[in-house]
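Dissemination and training. As part of the outreach component of the grant, students in the summer workshop were shown how a complex can be specified as a set of sequence lines and then modelled as a single object. The example used during the hands-on session is reproduced here so that future cohorts can follow it. Participants entered these lines:
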Amino acid sequence: VRARNATCMVRLCGMSALLAVLLSAPVHAQEATNTPAATQPSVGKWYLREKVQVVGLGKDPETGDRGARKVISTTTLTRGLTRNLSASVELPVTHSTEKKADGASERGLGLNDPSVSLKWRPYQRDLSPVDSVRLALYGGLELPAGSGGFGSNSVDPFAGAVLTAILGRHGFNQSISYKLNTGGRSAGSRPGDGPGDALRYDTAYLYRVFPAVYSAETTAATYLTLEMNGQYETNGDNEILLGPGILYEARTYALEASAGFPVVRDVQDRAKTDLAVTLGFRLLF
Amino acid sequence: MTNSGLFPVRHGVSYIKHKPEGVRIMKNQILLVPCITMIALVVGGCATTGGEARTSADDAEVITATGATLVVHGMSCPLCANNVDKQLLDVPGVSDVLVDMGTGEVKVSFAPDATVTRGQLVRAVDRSGFTLAEVRVP
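and obtained this result:
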């Protein structure tokens, strides 16, 4: 069954990649909540992003917990180093409430492994005032600085690529990345924090609902988003969340909200995700 | 056991908690790959930046008008277009910037007695990460 699901996952990735290629005639910088984009702040500018994700988890087959609720707050600070290169630091903090097998509740708070990364944009083609196509490569390290049982005690490198395309009111992002687990194991509060390596594949579509046409008076825009966020782990676990979202972008800040519903839950070594709701805030300065 | 030949399927926690020595050594060696990747990202990023935009003889020319209009491509959202504002306002002598995302026109106003060159405007747009299509000086 797992082999069949894995095959389906690979086919899904292939279809997503094909879709990306077909849509990549034109592109640029709309970024959905949980999918990377080939965007970055300009030289010398900072980009602060705060995301709070509430995740409902089912029974954990390893610990026997009946269920859990995790609130994961992720702070990301990015600086534009050159026109095509940026550096980021990410600090995730998790608050968990676990319902134990005996019915008791246990709470925990701690820092997940922080990460440092670089993003390089080797390809950019701006086709018109709005349309743009960009490709970025990114890579970094998850550092063993977690606390409260949420750290992995290992340096885990990761690398990926993302294609962003914007054509008029339509935006599209396709990202794929791989994280190598060098030996540690965290409490597994997030998919990919478990014992295996993790292949993450994300697809996002954004539609600008307002304004229909940009003008000199435009100071903000609102987008509806649809994301598919998948994570395959080399222990065989595979999970895909699909969900809608909304993004409000002003000139210096943005607000976002999204929900993720599991459409594939082929997970055996950790708790399955029942629902994920994310709220976020972005600031350019 | 394999799953369609892509990745080895590793069931069971015991495998993870007691990895064979060979696996650990291999993974340490694999760590070199991301290190090299990071170096490549830095070198590549700096190389493609090319020390900012290309310059020409016209770039040194001081613009005597009270402003200029730049046509910029790729500004697809308000937050990203703000990078153009910020970079142009960092140019000494630029007092105001008005972006029309629909046409890509960026109207730049200069302070009185400012000595702004075409090259400064070109470099500012380059640093913003967008593509400068045209510079119009009245």
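The two ends of chain A are 49 Å apart (CA to CA). Students were then asked to discuss how this feature might be tested experimentally.
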